[in-house]
Design a protein that fits this description.
This protein is an alpha+beta fold. Helix content is 24%, strand content 26%. It binds fe (ii) ion (FE2).
Length: 276
């Protein structure tokens, strides 16, 4: 059956499956969905966001909800958000944790992809929390982290010289925010680790070196093969991940080959809004 023909109750069942999975649903559809059908699928998960903070050239013309990601380059400039995956280091993160509310989930639709490379890593943070040694659990109990867009931007700029200067308005509307290191999922109630170290400028009460070593230790635990998987994309694939219970990370590919993904983010109850 084509995803474009899925009935509303089938889409609702997929949403439930996504929640029950711990944060990742991947469908190998083999079809290039038209923007309208893709957006109908996405709306079954939550109200869609528009991509105000991105260069309008990165958006699919006529569909501001759809951000193009990849190395699409035309007429002397990138027409997609191109974030080069670092070699060696893996930029584990959860989308836009540096704002309230962060998108509840994100959706990829693969359009064009190299045969090899460019896979996306996913890791389940609720299972990782459940298996956390009690020594680490005690260390992070009640601690908060500062998540910052400018901190991430500085890091990305090191490997992405093509990245445009962050507009002043975006900087002004994205001040750093705090979030606990352990969050409760507002829909499933499960506790999960929230440790996107490339967004985290500091952990409250810790010095810089302690912050980095604590996050490194937590990440090493949370991204073990028990909790992580790398998805190798084929055109037509659709993946939905939950930013409140899963982290993800890109991996490098041959940049002489084309990679193009459509990305949509949707809203939903956040794990934290800065007031508790
Ligand atoms: Fe991401």
């Amino acid at each position: 059956m084509s995803l474009a023909e899925a009935a509303d109750n089938q889409l609702a069942a997929l949403r439930q499956l996504w929640l029950d999975s711990g944060g990742l649903l991947v469908l190998r559809t083999g079809e290039a969905l038209c923007p309208k059908d893709f957006l109908r699928f996405c709306r079954a998960f939550g109200p869609l966001e528009e991509n105000e903070k991105y260069d309008p050239d990165f958006l699919l013309p006529g569909y501001p909800e759809i951000l193009r990601l990849g190395n699409l380059y035309r007429d002397g400039k990138y027409r997609a958000l191109f974030v080069r995956a670092e070699r060696g280091e893996v930029l584990w993160h959860t989308d836009d944790s540096f704002r309230y509310p962060q998108p509840a989930g994100s959706i990829f639709h693969c359009r064009t992809h190299p045969e090899t490379g460019g896979g996306t890593w996913y890791a389940g943070m609720a299972d990782a929390y459940d298996a956390l040694p009690s020594r680490l659990r005690r260390r992070i109990e009640g601690r908060f982290a500062v998540h910052s867009y400018t901190f991430l931007d500085d890091r990305l700029r090191q490997d992405n010289p093509h990245r445009r200067e962050m507009p002043l308005e975006v900087r002004r509307t994205h001040p750093p925010v705090i979030r606990p290191l352990v969050v409760n999922h507002p829909e499933t109630g499960r506790p999960a680790l929230l440790i996107p170290d490339c967004h985290i400028e500091s952990v409250t009460g810790l010095e810089e070196a302690e912050t980095r070593s604590l996050l490194a230790e937590l990440l090493a635990h949370a991204t073990r093969p028990d909790f992580a998987v790398c998805w190798q994309w084929r055109p037509g694939d659709v993946a939905v991940w939950d930013n409140r219970s899963a982290m993800h990370a890109g991996s490098p590919f041959d940049e002489l080959e084309a990679r193009l993904m459509y990305r949509v983010t949707f809203t939903g109850p956040d794990t934290y809004d800065g007031t508790r």
